[in-house]
Amino acid sequence: MQTELLTRKDAKVHDHAPAIDKLYDRIRHVVPEIEWHLFKDDIREILRLKKERNAIILAHNYMTPEIFHCVSDFVGDSLALARQAEATEADIIVMCGVHFMAETAKLLNPQKTVLIPDLNAGCSLAESITGEDVRKLKAANPGVPVVTYINTTAGVKAETDICCTSGNAVEVVESLGVDKVIMIPDEYLARNIAKKTNVEMITWPGRCEVHEQFTRQDLQDIRTNNEDVVILAHPECPPDVLDEADFAGSTSAMLNYVEDKRPNTVALITECSMSDNIAARHPEIAFVRPCNLCPHMKRISLKNIRTALEDNLFEVVIDPTLAEKARRPVDRMLALKK
Fold this sequence. Notes:
Elements: H1 8-12, H2 20-27, H3 33-53, E1 55-60, H4 65-68, E2 74-76, H5 78-87, E3 92-96, H6 99-108, E4 113-115, H7 131-140, E5 146-149, H8 154-157, E6 162-164, H9 169-175, E7 180-184, H10 187-197, E8 200-202, H11 216-225, E9 230-233, H12 239-244, E10 247-248, H13 251-261, E11 265-269, H14 272-281, E12 286-288, H15 302-311, H16 320-335
Parallel strand pairs: 1-2, 1-3, 3-4, 5-6, 5-7, 7-8, 9-10, 9-11, 11-12
Helix pairs in contact: 3-15, 5-6, 9-10
């Protein structure tokens, strides 16, 4: 089974500059050779700087293939990256993802330097709610525990009982042993998890700007045009989209499904680069590509990763008092299953 993390054997390739062109073999199926020649210098320098500065690069599954396959030390969904951030012995963490992921890494590593290559790599979910909003929800629903999606700011996490990701939301909700929770901020994730847990959800009208665009008709059109297609959907999609899909799960769950089942044709109902990164490993599988780009994820590039390592940009700083409160719900989530 494919895991979320690159092996150390893979990572050792990064130590050898003459092996740069061998890295192209990883992405040859999805990246034209002419583009590779534009990437090589930055890749070589990033690998050198990582070694020199004792830095690691954590990359979300939505990163483009040249980042995901060629410079990252560990890749995965939000849960996998949070676990790796907690475990790393590196001095510097470069988060190739969006801002809340870099904040989470900093919460778990207050003494380490955490960098995000572009400060404007945000998230519609994280921007949809504030700590004050959470306080009002708690006042209106006294005693109801708050489950907060990891896709939130430290200020929101600080008002939370426990965090979750799309990969462990069912486990987190059921661990509380209650019949009602406040689950924020993703309205669709909460509604989809409610179907699996029979726990009443008090929701917030936050939505992922990528996943909310998918419709049931989109999936029906895919089936019409691709007779043997298997459709995998992310739980941030609307509930009727998940009803139409063959499987619903986090990005890592989707990856593992493809690895285990090896369908002839597959459609991933999520951000575009996910298909590219799996297709790079499996050229024998046909990918139908309904493409909704995340504009925030796409702010991260080889160029600004290199600049981040060269100039220590942009360092994530969280007020220590806030960080102490915000870390607790993340620690509770991580303690559920090691």
